[in-house]
Amino acid sequence: MDRFVIRKKQSDNLERNNSAKTNPSPFDKHVTDKNVSFSVAPSTSCDEISTTGSDSEKSKPSAAPEKSNCNKNKNNSASTTSDKQDIAAIISDELAHKNEPIKQIKLSIYPKNNQGRMFRSEWYSTFPWLEYSPTLDSAFCYVCRLYAVYTKELAFVKTGYNNWKHACDKTKSGFHKHESSSTHIEAVAFMNEQKTRRELNVSVETLVNDSVLEKRRYYVKSIIEVVQFLVVNELALRGNYNLDEHVEQGLFENLFEFTIRKYEKLAEICNSSVIPKNATYKSPEIQNEIIQIMTEAIQEDVANEVNTSDVPLFTLLEDGTKDKNRRENVATALRYVKDKHVYESILSIESTEKLDAETFTNVTLETLERKNVKPENMLSQCYDGASVMSGSDGGVQALIQKKLKKIIPYVHCFNHKLHLVVVKTAETW
Ligand SMILES: [Zn+2]
């Protein structure tokens, strides 16, 4: 708890130097040995040191009691497991993690030891690997702490170094000696190698993926556009299968071939290995899937539009037609007014083998529910005059009113009426 309080006080008094983040330029210091290079972002000058701490805090270095304990343990190399865990937690909290830029924390004032000596910010520019933990009042080596594979070094890696008297002494154990140690040099080499490998891997991987991805997307988009053109113009996609050559010669294939001839980029992609030969994305299944996706997108749009507050009510339109398999295809459409304009949109086409009113009613209500269209907003119903739809007792219009427990007037479709008039008139001539 005390340690937390101390840390809090010091964090108020320190300004973390994030220059490595804002200025990730190559390091300005090179430790050359076996072609190894290591550099860090230049530290700011002492003039830039923050003085946000209060006077009382400045005059009373808050970490002194705590650090003396830590350092005592560290110097004796007899720290308990609990102390080690505490130190590790503080390091993790205050200093950089792997793959993060170095944090060279600067305080406006550093605590003095018994000899009146203290850490100095200027050391950062001389030793770009140097880190300082305010809570532990100790120095660490960024490189050895994070990249040393195996090391017996404790001070700069595990426990912290705080022998400020000999810190810059070239003949004694200090920063210079650590920097020239084999442990440090190997750690620097390992770090630079990892960094290079990581950057290379990332860039090549991203480049390949993005490029391939972009080409595949272009190819699939071209297929979708051909399908869209044919569907919108109500043209059959397939149908002309050449039995002799075993190839499909429908409009889809022909139009796609035409598109390849017209667009160089598409031709290049088709002739490259970007699209695997066993995955052409042009099979009838894929074509149907594309049409289905388009259908669902349009149906969702229609449902969303009808569900807005601008459209309080709608009229249900429905009609069916038999296909060659004697299945009834029931088209459900909605007629509504929005922004003073009348819209009629098909919501869905469902197939059914039964042709009774109960089946049609269930299909209709299930469709509305599935598309999230509220049946309570149904103002009227509009069908042809067939008794299965218009019957006042057992017709679809009557069953829907019963099921929804609401009066929803039935209107005999004017278009159907007109059609009947024209047919009858033509018959009499
Ligand atoms: Zn080191």
Automatic annotation (TrEMBL):
It holds the Pfam family DUF4371. Residues 1-82 are annotated as: Disordered. InterPro entries: DUF4371 (IPR025398), Znf_TTF (IPR006580). Residues 1-15 have a biased composition (Basic and acidic residues). Residues 67-82 have a biased composition (Low complexity). Residues 16-25, 34-54 have a biased composition (Polar residues). Residues 115-203 form the TTF-type domain. This is TTF-type domain-containing protein. The lineage of its organism: Eukaryota, Metazoa, Ecdysozoa, Arthropoda, Hexapoda.
